[in-house]
Amino acid sequence: MSAHSSFPHNDAEDWSHVRETINMLCLAVCQIEATMSDSNRSVDTLTSSFTALALHSRSVSAKINSLSKPEQLHEFKDDLNNTTTELQQNINASVLAFQFYDRVCQRLDHVARSLEKVSGLLETENALHAPEAWKHIQENIKSSYTMEAERIMFEHIMRGGTVKDALEIYRHHFEETGPSVDSDNDEVELF
What we know:
The chain is mostly helical. The chain has one domain (17-177). The chain is 76% helix and 0% strand. Helix 1 (17-66) packs antiparallel against helix 5 (148-158). The longest helix is centred in the middle third of the chain and has 52 residues, at 72-123. The radius of gyration is 24 Å and the shape is rod-shaped. Residues 1-10 and 179-191 have low confidence and may be disordered.
């Protein structure tokens, strides 16, 4: 899917509400696809973390049951210290995955609100053919994004880019910066 938009320029002859609608639908598809991909990674992290937590718990229990001599206590203490360090790492990974779940919910809410705004515009005859009304909605949607990758994806789609390319740009952004978010208002809040 690809489209052309008047968002970066104001050429009235080139503007079309159909193209704007297509752009907004492409944007929604990108947001949903990126959200599903991110949520799959979070679920994979949670699955791995909880599996590791269960294995560590069994290991500690087995070591406790195998203690029969006082001299084994020092070795057990060292093993237990290593195990608790690994447990803490898995707990931290789980908390981060839950934070990204919260992000997923926020992003899906953005998609729903954006589609509501577009459908409201499509129902209003005067606004339907008004480039400024479309630009206002697009600016409003863009300002609701808290992640830089979302803003980059938005710009790409509004310039007529394809969904496939926008998703590739989004993925590339996370390969460079990692899944964590940076400090200029991109922090993930837990619930």
